[in-house]
């Protein structure tokens, strides 16, 4: 599907819905292709969730202190 930058500005919701349904959208500016919006595959979404997830971020932390001790130490602030 090809759309112009003006159509993108006027109807972004409809275009996002098209992409969500699996359709690729090419954005044109003055008749030339400028950008493409493509849906993310389920495999990419799962992989990104693994990388972004904050849960278990201390799992591979090598520090001897517990999370509570580290947070307490960070909240102390400067000591002059």
């Amino acid at each position: 599907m090809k759309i112009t930058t003006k159509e993108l500005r006027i109807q972004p919701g409809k275009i996002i819905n098209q992409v969500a349904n699996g359709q690729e959208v090419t954005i044109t500016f003055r008749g030339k292709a400028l950008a493409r919006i493509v849906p993310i595959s389920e495999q990419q979404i799962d992989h990104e969730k693994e990388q972004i997830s904050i849960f278990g971020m201390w799992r591979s932390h090598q520090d001897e202190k517990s999370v509570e001790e580290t947070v307490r130490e960070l909240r102390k602030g400067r000591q002059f």
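The chain has a mean pLDDT of 81. Strands lie at 2-4, 25-29, 32-37.
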